[in-house]
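Pipeline run #58 for the internal structure catalog. This entry was flagged by the ingest filter as a single-chain record with no existing model, so it goes straight to prediction. Upstream metadata was stripped on purpose; only the residue string is passed forward. Reviewer on rotation: M.T. Logging verbosity set to normal.
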Amino acid sequence: MSALATAPGVVRKSTRIFVTQEDVSILLGCGKSKAYDIVRDVNEQAKKKGNHPFPAGKANKYLFSDIFDIPMDEVDKVINGE
């Protein structure tokens, strides 16, 4: 870890704000095609709520976490490869 990562005032490592098909597959234990369907569905939910959907193959991790009731810590672990 660099000195910047442990500097005073640094809360935590930056992480991305979306999940991919691979992340969804790991988190839900489903296959690749089902994970793509789920990403598409999460983006549809975003549209219904008036939010902008992510590009194809990506979905908002906060909305995904909320829909599937998965703690954000677990989602971030998968995203960060832990």
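catalog note: The mean pLDDT is 88.
catalog note: The two ends are 15 Å apart (CA to CA).
status: ready for reviewer M.T.
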